[in-house]
From TrEMBL:
Residues 248-282 form the Vta1 C-terminal domain. This is Vacuolar protein sorting-associated protein VTA1. Residues 158-244 are annotated as: Disordered. One of its GO terms (biological process) is protein transport. Keywords: Cytoplasm, Endosome, Membrane, Protein transport, Transport. Residues 214-224 have a biased composition (Basic and acidic residues).
Length: 289
């Protein structure tokens, strides 16, 4: 974002930074980073004028991305469905985040540990909060990635040798101290070395299983169920029987999502505004009597 992040919204800064880093390599991930930043911002910025002023342009940007996505469905269907279909989007984010985590873990075990890789992995995994509470295994990976990043920083600062892989006893003792680690700032030389994963666009892509312990300690996990195939999209300007274009329906859905998010945090003013706009749009499709 061109304007600085207000202090009250400092927790969204790492996600906006991740969005900036991947916007060219993976626009879908950049979209979801900004989406979660806005969602988190509603929670943290309730009642703060400066926060509302910062968030409104971000919400407008997300709406424009969504509408542009609908107009490009025919050209890049699978990629765009990762924005317009929540089930596919969740799978896309999880695969991307786990591949970043796996890359960081592999580098660590090869003696090439990168603090930034683990921090980036933790933030990408946290994007799954968009769809609800994190599953236990994802929570474990977030916790591990933040802890590992702190361990790498400590080793570099003190000039000590870093032990590759997990140390369960030390992790359990120190993990609670690492959750506030800020991933929004990282040395440029670290970010330049990262190669972002190419996530398969097929909806039946298998879930990546990443080990935070040695292979002999692992119990095989079943492959995650693939989300159901999305319905064949309509042209954005086609008007089905409802009388609403696909782009207008997408706008109404977006307004309803923001209404729900605002209500989660008892921000009644924002919820009322978004819902009122959605109802006005729906009224335009009301059949004449």
């Amino acid at each position: 974002m061109p304007s600085p992040v207000p202090p009250v919204l400092k927790e969204i800064a790492p996600f906006l930074q991740r969005a900036k880093e991947v916007e060219h390599a993976d626009p879908v991930m950049a979209y979801w980073c900004k989406y979660y930043a806005a969602q988190l911002g509603i929670e943290k910025g309730t009642g703060h004028t400066e926060a509302q002023a910062f968030l409104l342009p971000l919400m407008d940007e997300l709406e424009q991305v969504c509408l542009q996505t609908l107009t490009q469905l025919k050209a890049t269907l699978s990629e765009n469905e990762a924005v317009t279909n929540d089930a596919i989007g969740q799978t896309y984010i999880e695969n991307f985040a786990l591949q970043v985590f796996l890359g960081a873990d592999n580098e660590d075990r090869e003696g090439k540990a990168s603090r930034y890789s683990f921090l980036a992995a933790s933030k990408f995994l946290e994007l799954l909060k968009v769809f609800g509470p994190l599953e236990a295994d994802i929570q474990t990976k977030v916790k591990y990635a933040k802890w590992k990043a702190a361990q790498i920083s400590k080793a570099l600062r003190e000039g000590t040798e870093l032990t590759p892989g997990p140390d369960k006893a030390t992790m359990e003792t120190e993990a609670g101290q690492t959750t506030s680690e800020d991933a929004s700032q990282a040395p440029a030389d670290d970010t330049d070395k990262l190669q972002w994963p190419q996530v398969p666009h097929e909806t039946d892509a298998p879930r990546v299983q990443v080990m935070t312990a040695r292979p002999e300690d692992q119990t095989p996990k079943p492959r995650a169920e693939a989300p159901p195939p999305a319905a064949q999209p309509l042209d954005p300007e086609d008007k089905p029987e409802s009388g609403l274009s696909v782009s207008k329906i997408a706008h109404i859905q977006k307004l309803c999502r923001w209404t729900s998010s605002a209500l989660d945090y008892e921000d009644l003013e924002t919820a009322r505004t978004q819902l009122h706009e959605a109802l006005l749009l729906l009224d335009t499709a009301r059949p004449s009597t």
